[in-house]
Amino acid sequence: MLNPDRYFSPVPEVRQLARRLYERIAELPLVCPHGHVDPRLLAEDAPFPDPAALIVVPDHYLVRMLYSQGVPMERLGIPTRDGTPVETDPRRIWQTFAEHFYLFRGTPSAAWLRHELESVFGITERLEGGSAQRIYDHMQARLSEPAFRPRALFERFRIEVLCTTDAAGDGLEWHQRIRASEWPGDVRPTFRPDLAIDLLHPGWAAEIERLRGLTGEPIGEFRSYVRALESRRAFFKSLGATATDHAAVTPFTAELSARAADEIFGRALRGAASADDQRAFTGHMLMEMARMSVDDGLVMQLHPGSARNHNERIYGRFGPDRGCDIPLRTEYTINLRPLLNRFGNEPGFRLILFTLDESTYSRELAPLAGHYPAVFLGPPWWFHDSLEGMRRFRAQVTETAGIYNTVGFNDDTRAFLSIPARHDLSRRVDAQFLADLVARHVVDADEADQMIGALAYELPKRAYRLGA
User: Fold this and answer.
1) Alpha carbon distance 301, 351 (integer Å)
2) Which residues contact 456 (CB under 8 A, 6 or more apart)?
3) What pLDDT does 467 receive?
4) Amino acid 74: pLDDT
5) Residues 41-93: pLDDT tens digits?
6) How many whole angstroms separate alpha carbon 124 and alpha carbon 115?
7) Calpha distance 326→356 (Å, rounded)
8) Which helix (H) or strand (E) element contains residue 446?
9) What was the pLDDT predicted at 468?
């Protein structure tokens, strides 16, 4: 199924250039500086479950497409919040998925899964209703083999380092277990304090309680809350963390007075915080997180611009992360000005910006990264982590920011087995982009050789300070 020249130009001369560039980096190790693989997977190293539980049920990319075409989530085995019955037979779930796999033609989900089936499982038959059970049997048999345990696949995939995403109140037990084992795989946590910062989140109070228990701080006022977060960052660093991650509806930043911050925090502790309080507090805490990054060297990532759980019926019945999140228009230049004027010129600070609003690439993000020493651009994210999304990103940012103000590729996935497919797609797109530049005599062939190595391997290691 996998054409060796997939994603390359139909023009023979340009295709040959792209193929040569890709072959230079195809076997390089995978650097995975941002993602959502559960560290428990690699700590326990237990066999993977059945194909449906592995591929279909946890993947919001797949679930959202099937739901959009009228496939009930119950038929896909998605657990309900109230425990009402859903399909539990993995073969039936897989059959439903296979019969509807045609819906993914032309999407990155199809590209990833076809690569996964062929390169990981050795399956070259097309997935459809008639082949579903044969493919299921083949995958189930392979998943029972020692070579298909998580740690064995980690090594087979040539993963050099993998970073997870972990809440501030996470005890990091699974990371500690990995470090205590004799396995040499490099798996690192990433500090994500969103739950501890979002004053209106239903789980905020419980997260504050976890922070109290983990740090010994009373957290009765704002200063002790900040000390608790600083303490947790230090603990994450002790287990190899090099980065933080922050999601916000907007990248709004503004510094509050000490009194105002304490008053808002006090209202939150009493359960009386307002939406205005939440916005002001989040903007202030992004400033605080930047200050802490200057102090402790953790790279700061910012992922704004998603309206979470847009479909209230689905959220109410099935909970979050079911494909109901929708991008928003996002403004960076004004919103980030307070943060960048205070910290953007600091040599020890690094801020990696992501977007779901492609209109900002050339208008705001590339100019910001092309000026501020602290600012770097994260790769196309989520809805734009695709063949065309990557092409648009390179076309719109390179002339202003170059490639060296970008950070290479993040797979940003929960689907562990899809990691090689995602990196392969990115490497092929970058090879094609650079082949076009060589063909048009924008860069020389030897310069493209250096650039493809940087994009595939060097930039993510440097940007995320993963050299040690």
Assistant:
1) 6
2) 25, 28, 408, 409, 426, 427, 430
3) 83
4) 97
5) 999 999 999 999 999 999 999 999 999 999 999 999 999 999 999 999 999 99
6) 10
7) 9
8) helix 445-453
9) 59
307-343 pLDDT per residue, tens: 999 999 999 999 999 999 999 999 999 999 999 999 9
Go through the domains of the chain in sequence order and give each one's CATH number. Answer: 12-47+147-463 (3.20.20.140), 48-146 (1.10.2020.10)
Annotate 94-149 with three-state secondary structure.
HHHHHHCHHHHCCCHHHHHHHHHHHHHHCCCCCCCHHHHHHHHHHHHHHHCCHHHC
Distance in angstroms (rounded) separating the CA atoms of residues 430 and 204: 41
Q: Please state at what angle helix 419-439 crosses helix 387-401, rounded to 10 degrees.
A: 50
Q: Is 80 exceeded by the pLDDT of residue 32?
A: yes
What is the number of alpha carbons within 13 Å of residue 96 lying toward its C-beta?
26
SS3 296: helix
Strand order in the sheet with 166-167: 166-167, 191-192, 243-248, 299-304, 351-353, 375-377
Q: Look up the pTM and report it.
A: 0.97
Q: Which amino acid is at 317?
A: R
Do residues 208 and 198 lie in contact, with contact meaning Cβ atoms separated by under 8 Å?
Answer: no
3-state SS class at 441: coil
- The position carrying tokens 């295709």 is 15
Written as six digits, the tokens of 39 are 């560290």
pLDDT digits (tens, 9 = 90+) for 103-136: 999 999 999 999 999 999 999 999 999 999 999 9
DSSP assignment string, 362-406: IIIIHHHHTT-TTEEEPPP-GGG-SHHHHHHHHHHHHHHHTTTTB
Instruction: Name residue, tokens 């795989």.
Output: 185
Give the C-alpha separation, 430 to 103, whole Å: 27
Contacts of 347 (CB under 8 A, 6+ apart): 373
Alpha-carbon span 468 to 458, nearest angstrom: 13
- What's the DSSP call for residue 28? S
Partnered with residue 101 across adjacent β-strands are none
How far from 7 is each of 147, 275, 320, 432, CA to CA, in Å?
A: 30, 45, 33, 8
Rounded Cα gap, residues 394 and 409, in angstroms: 12
Specify the residue for token string 């139909």: 10
What was the pLDDT predicted at 1? 78
Question: How many CB atoms within 10 Å of residue 147?
Answer: 9
| pLDDT of res. 53 | 96
Count how many residues are written for the chain.
468
